[in-house]
Amino acid sequence: MERTCYEKPYIAFTQHFCCVLIAQFNERGNLPEGVHRATWKEVCARFGTNQHRQELLFGLNLALFFLKKVGCKGVYLDGSFVTSKEFPKDVDCLWDPMGVNLVILDPAFRCDPPGRNRQKLVFRGDYFPSSFTESVSGLSFLDFFQIDKETGDQKGIVQINLEDYQ
């Protein structure tokens, strides 16, 4: 029997359907340790559970559009947005700078104060290049994102491949 997952048909001999699902939250409300790959549709379905979260997704969608346009291949999502928190403050996002045309990159993606203010206003979050180092811990932001700030435990983040994003 043929089933579809996100409007793309998938036929398998050993299973009846195929869907990649973002892992369930642990007892602390975080994703399990690791990088959880997801499509834009999966992120919307999983994290767009109320009007507030949908407004944050609107800003993220706009940011992803601009990042893809300048050659960004992928992003990582973190913060309270990818937790069980009902009303997260914002979206925390790392973008992969490899292949990005920095000449035409929207100034909002700069990490100076005017850029950071525009990020929060327009894109409803914080956006950093994944190659940056977090100043206090000395860790890469990619590693820093995977640590629960309250407990120091490892936690999961979400990766979106922008080559598949539309």
Features:
alpha/beta; five-stranded mixed sheet; single chain; 166 residues; two-stranded antiparallel ribbon; 25% helix
Describe this protein's structure:
By secondary structure, this protein is of the alpha/beta class. It has one domain (24-161). The protein is 25% helix and 19% strand. The chain is built from four helices and seven strands; from the N terminus they run βββααββαβαβ. It has a five-stranded mixed β-sheet. The two termini are 29 Å apart.
* Tally of individual helices: 4
Average pLDDT taken over every residue:
88
Kindly provide the radius of gyration, computed on alpha-carbon positions and rounded to a whole number of angstroms: 17 Å
Proportion of β residues? 15-25%
Question: How many strand elements?
Answer: 7
The description of the largest β-sheet is:
5 strands, mixed
The number of domains: 1
- Shape descriptor reads globular
Order of helices and strands: EEEHHEEHEHE
Walk across the major sheet and give the strand order.
3-7-4-5-6
Query: pLDDT under 50 segments (min length 5)?
Result: 1-18
What would a concise description of this structure say?
With 166 residues, the chain is α/β, with parallel strands linked by helices. The chain has helices spanning 40-47, 51-69, 113-123, 141-144; strands at residues 3-5, 8-10, 34-38, 74-78, 91-95, 125-129, 156-161.
SSE arrangement:
Elements: E1 3-5, E2 8-10, E3 34-38, H1 40-47, H2 51-69, E4 74-78, E5 91-95, H3 113-123, E6 125-129, H4 141-144, E7 156-161
